[in-house]
Write a structure and sequence with these properties.
Two copies of one chain form a homodimer.
Chain A: H1 2-14, H2 21-32, H3 39-49, H4 55-68, E1 72-74, E2 82-84, E3 93-96, E4 102-103, H5 109-120, E5 124-135, H6 137-145
Chain A binds a DNA duplex through helix 4.
DNA sequence: ACCTTATAGATAATTATTATCAATAACAAA
DNA sequence: TTTGTTATTGATAATAATTATCTATAAGGT
């Protein structure tokens, strides 16, 4: 996990980019994050350390990491993109449409399957994405425990 | 394929919605389309028949079909969403990042796999999405045939 | 310490999509 | 067939995430 930060720092320096305190703080947050935060959420965390930091700076750092292939971006329809700077390789996700949590199941199956499928179709794969949308166990529990007939709130669209 | 149009028409009427000529034209285009068009592309096709049609009307019809579960929406980061009104069930896609073509491979594997995986994790699945991004066979050929060193144009981001 | 230039911060611009609203037309009922 | 209700249309404004712009600043090599 500290390794991951070092990898990011190294990649940044290798390409002649500079390490500002703000950028360093952003890298640290992204390297440690397992919750697939939005840019806005990263921004809020950075501001705790550097109150003067601009949202644009977070966007620019994320863009930089995308170019280096060191961050995984999960874009959705209307919602803000979610980012994984901890594990930038494509991997499947379980996405709760109620609370927005994104889980990383351990599915060894998807290590080789995408490439095999694409090879079969003569398709030169450069990326892939596997998302399962639904209600996570925690939200199912919250629902079943509820004694009122109060609706649980409309789920997000994704 | 004519069946598909009838299904859409029926779904629309069932829910008390009205069938205007514009809406009918949009349904016809979406029912027949195998190319995963954008709203803009549907709009252009509709205008050939009804030049006064508004882009907003296409958006509204697509939204309606989404609510009915009769159209599959593929949202991407920056790009416009692509739509499949011909086969609205979730299915895997091969997406060319160079020409934008979206192919539907026949992968029986993905009929049951998503549900099995989610069951295993206690995740109540309501939707899923499997996308493979890369260079389609046609674009690979165009590249290898090219004798000049002219770059093939930057691929889109998706 | 100096110099070059990438980066920060603030804000304007972009763009797909959605909301608004008055005029019109679908369609059920008389 | 005519009528009445109201969903829909078309035009345009609003929204919101992301990107572009631009000047002052500071990173990092010399």
């Amino acid at each position: 996990m500290e390794d991951r930060l070092q990898t990011l720092v190294q990649k940044i320096r290798q390409h002649g980019h500079r390490l500002t305190p703000q950028r360093m703080a952003i890298l640290r947050i992204l390297a440690d994050s397992t919750g697939h935060p939005t840019v806005e959420q990263v921004y809020e965390q950075v501001q705790a350390q550097f109150p003067m930091t601009s949202l644009a700076t977070v966007y620019k750092t994320v863009t930089l990491l995308k170019e280096e292939g060191e961050i995984l971006e999960l874009s959705f329809g209307g919602e803000s993109s979610r980012y994984d700077g901890h594990n930038p390789q494509p991997h499947p996700h379980l996405i709760c449409i109620r609370c927005g949590t994104i889980l990383d199941p351990d599915l060894a199956l998807f290590n080789d399957l995408p490439r095999e499928i694409c090879d079969k179709y003569g398709f030169q794969m450069v990326n892939h994405r596997v998302d399962f949308f639904g209600i996570c166990p925690a939200c199912q529990q919250a629902q079943s425990v509820s004694t009122t007939s109060t609706p649980q709130g409309k789920e997000q669209e994704f």
